[in-house]
Design brief:
292 residues, alpha/beta, nine-stranded mixed β-sheet, 11 strands, globular
């Protein structure tokens, strides 16, 4: 694993055959990636209006929802050229409610990352307390831009974060959308079959995945658990294949790729997160498919 900083308009000679963590803004770094290279892109972009990472112009901090959606469309349009013709894209996104035009949010002792120095205004056409539907709006925008929308996977979290609300159910799920670049694509369904009701039988994996969240004390932000990512890596890439995560965060995709004998390229803007990811991946046995 190598750590590289890639700046806009800066040409750096890179050995793309190695697993890499690339420091920089995805909108600049993606231009330097090799074309038609990755078996799959697996990622979780910043959620709109829910986190403040402290960077000017950061994705997720757009004032208008339409601008956030367009920023993601443009990122994944550029990534489409980097994914193989038989490749796939997997995008995890959570939803949110309108802010009621509140302009900030206090921190929470149990969840320090909840603190916000800004809150986007209520999108046009919505009302205070409306569920926005961000994941589906992004999914339909990517579909309209040329991606094949193949599946909406429900990540059910039995140990979800409690909510104090009393006028609606507590949110206990997020979406993982599966897209493909072409009509026909690599998908190893045999590798991720699940137990059927009949004893000893296996069936095609269903679209609701029950996976507990896993706290990660070094990161003051949500990280998706390795058990959620393992079947995606298995199904979307052969051994020694290449996986791209353009919003690398704490490096879960890299950890899973290392354990399953896949290569990865991760892009991350935040230096602290890069250090966390590098330490996690270094500690991970290689390869160990039984790790998760």
């Amino acid at each position: 694993m190598q750590l590289l900083e890639l700046k806009e308009k800066e040409k750096v000679k890179v050995d793309w055959s190695e697993s890499l963590i690339l420091e920089g803004d995805v909108r600049n770094v993606v231009k330097q990636l090799p074309d038609n290279f990755y078996s799959s892109c697996i990622t979780s972009p910043p959620y709109w209006g829910l986190r403040d990472y402290g960077y000017e112009g950061q994705i997720g901090a757009e004032t208008l929802l339409e601008d956030f959606i367009q920023d993601l469309v443009e990122v994944f349009r550029a990534i489409r050229d980097k994914v193989r013709d038989d490749g796939t894209l997997w995008v995890n996104l959570g939803d949110s409610y309108t802010s009621g035009n509140r302009t900030w949010r206090e921190k929470d002792k149990k969840n320090p990352a909840r603190e916000m120095t800004y809150r986007p205004p209520t999108p046009a056409g919505l009302k205070p307390k409306d569920l926005i539907g961000v994941p589906w709006k992004v999914a339909f925008a990517l579909q309209a831009d040329g991606w094949y929308l193949r599946s909406d996977i429900i990540w059910y979290k039995p140990n979800c974060q409690p909510e104090s609300v009393k006028d609606r159910p507590t949110q206990s799920h997020e979406y993982f959308f599966m897209f493909s670049k072409s009509e026909k694509y690599y998908y190893d369904h045999e590798s991720i079959k699940e137990p059927a009701e009949a004893k000893g039988k296996l069936r095609n994996r269903r679209s609701v995945w029950q996976v507990n969240t896993e706290p990660f004390p070094e990161a003051h932000f949500a990280t998706f658990p390795p058990k959620l990512i393992k079947p995606i890596v298995q199904a979307s890439s052969p051994k020694d294949g290449y996986i791209l995560d353009p919003f690398f965060g704490a490096g879960t995709v890299g950890v899973v790729c290392k354990s399953l004998n896949r290569n990865y390229h991760g892009i991350e803007l935040n230096k602290d997160y890069i250090n966390i990811a590098a330490k996690r991946i270094k500690k991970c046995p290689s390869p160990d498919p039984t790790l998760f």
